[in-house]
């Protein structure tokens, strides 16, 4: 059994997906974030034998699709995020989930990859369960990472000081784990949703999701206005 951690922020307008504004307004960006979070919770709850845990910050009553999210969260364990920075919150999430489900590995994802489904998460959990594997790391296209699995959840402390939102966050995370003697297996690379181009690409890759429906519901061509017209540049995680 694997505890699947969803590190999430309540999709309050103005506090989530701010890199989508413009072309979106804060409410529209929050609607996309809410759809992505709902898709992610659904995926986590449908992995056979897994125990989903949402580690949440923010005010749900101010969130887009708040009532729908509240209903979804009643079906899973919910823990509060704690720690000053993202690295500390990641380490604390693994620690707190281990206290909830002692003796079991943890697999952490975020709410930026709504294309993740139960089969992909089950494959990640299976990779973590292979003999000799201490950790799995899912690299993101932007240089960050979308998933971190640990056979021993306490090992999350190794990445607490790794700088986040950098173009080499994923590489640094892997280095921190390997430098401590852990054997790390890489998961398939995925794109998370930060920009308008990301949103369009992920919606196209996962057409049956709530996220894709939310993108389709936007005014035609709106997201295209937020896409770069010059040469592509590598962006931070």
Tags for this model:
7-stranded mixed sheet; alpha/beta; 237 residues; Spore Coat Polysaccharide Biosynthesis Protein SpsA, Chain A; 35% helix; globular; disordered C terminus
Descriptive report:
- This is DUF2064 domain-containing protein.
- By secondary structure, the protein is α/β, with parallel strands linked by helices.
- The protein has a single domain, classed as Spore Coat Polysaccharide Biosynthesis Protein SpsA, Chain A (Alpha-Beta Complex), CATH 3.90.550.
- The chain has seven helices and seven strands, in the order E-H-E-H-E-H-E-H-E-E-H-E-H-H.
- A seven-stranded mixed beta sheet has the order 3-2-1-4-6-5-7, with helices on both faces.
- A hairpin with a 5-residue loop joins strand 5 and strand 6.
- Helix 1 runs parallel beside helix 2 (66-73), helix 1 packs antiparallel against helix 7 (210-216) and helix 6 (196-205) crosses helix 7.
- The longest helix has 20 residues, at 26-45.
- The relative contact order is 0.17.
């Amino acid at each position: 059994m694997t505890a699947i951690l969803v590190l999430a922020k309540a999709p309050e307008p103005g506090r989530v997906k701010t890199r989508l504004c413009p072309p979106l307004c804060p409410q529209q960006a929050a609607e996309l974030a809410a759809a992505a979070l709902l898709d992610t919770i659904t995926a986590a709850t449908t992995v056979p034998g897994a125990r989903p845990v949402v580690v949440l910050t923010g005010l749900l009553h101010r969130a887009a699709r708040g009532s729908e999210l509240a209903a979804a969260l009643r079906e899973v364990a919910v823990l509060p995020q704690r720690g000053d920075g993202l690295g500390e919150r990641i380490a604390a999430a693994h620690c707190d989930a281990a206290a909830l489900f002692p003796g079991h590995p943890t697999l952490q994802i975020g709410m930026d990859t709504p294309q993740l489904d139960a089969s992909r998460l089950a494959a990640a959990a299976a990779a973590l369960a292979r003999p000799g594997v201490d950790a799995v790391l899912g690299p993101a296209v932007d240089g960050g990472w979308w998933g971190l699995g640990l056979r021993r959840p306490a090992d999350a402390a190794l990445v607490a000081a790794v700088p986040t939102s950098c173009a080499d966050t994923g590489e640094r995370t892997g280095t921190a784990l390997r430098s401590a003697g852990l054997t790390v297996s890489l998961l398939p690379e995925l794109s998370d949703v930060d920009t308008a181009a990301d949103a369009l690409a992920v919606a196209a890759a996962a057409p049956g999701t709530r996220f894709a429906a939310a993108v389709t519901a936007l005014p035609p061509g709106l997201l295209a206005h937020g896409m770069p017209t010059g040469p592509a540049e590598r962006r931070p995680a």
